[in-house]
Amino acid sequence: MNLSFKECTIxxxxxxxxxxxxxxxxxxxxxNNPNDFKTYISSAFNKEKVKSELLNPHSTFYFVYxxxxxxxxxxxxxxxxxxxxxxxxxxxxxxxxxxxxxQGRQIGKKMLFKVIEISKTKEVIFLWLGVWEHNDAAIRxxxxxxxxxxxxxxxxxxxxxxxxxxxxxxx
Length: 171
What we know:
7-stranded mixed beta sheet, Aminopeptidase
């Protein structure tokens, strides 16, 4: 399997919005209230919001390609771009998604290994992420690679207050 990783720039804005929307919808639309979900999608993935995230010097998006096909993406946040602040230096894996048609091929695992590799080059103590408490498959996936639950935080999908488990991997 020939995976490659490309750091996104502003010229990638439109395909970034498209893959962000499509992978989030495929992952979560069927298990959430339709009105809250629609509100969230229009807010989280509108052009101005994604553009501001893409231009933030402490956030980095990466496209993931299998040969020449875009199969997924991930987003890392550092410093004040993180959704939580900790006393120890950390990096946040805010998003990691594989297109549905490419799932089941170990691409997510290879993406996570790339995230860990990138994180180890930073001067941080741990890598962390938030995962919905009801996303059992994702929780098992991260636990398989030594992520441990150490906190929770609220995550709003529209007006629906959900709980994310905060998992961390000591580096």
